[in-house]
Design a protein that fits this description.
Layout: E1 2-6, E2 9-13, H1 15-21, H2 26-33, H3 37-44, H4 52-62, H5 66-69, E3 70-74
Antiparallel strand pairs: 1-2, 2-3
Helix pairs in contact: 2-3
InterPro entries: Cro/C1-type_HTH, Lambda_DNA-bd_dom_sf
Protein name: Helix-turn-helix transcriptional regulator
Keywords: DNA-binding
């Protein structure tokens, strides 16, 4: 699970897990949600927190609730 830390709050994501379980390349997922492959790469590594719009687009693409893929925890 990737994560990004900001001011006492860590944003987590399971983009990599969902992408692999669905047999998708980073490029295929990027095209499906309208971003670059680089965006997917840095998101999976926890170096980028997506906009709320992009987070919803990814969740909708995988047909899951946004909280199944994205979450947070306090440090």
């Amino acid at each position: 699970m990737a994560s990004k830390q900001n001011s006492g709050l860590t944003i987590t994501n399971k983009v990599y897990e969902y992408r692999v379980l669905n047999h998708l390349s980073q490029t295929a997922l990027a095209k499906a949600v309208g971003v670059s492959k680089q965006t997917i790469l840095v998101m999976e590594k926890g170096n980028y927190s997506p906009t709320l719009k992009l987070a919803f687009e990814i969740a909708i693409f995988f047909n899951v609730d946004i909280t199944d893929i994205f979450g947070y925890k306090e440090n």
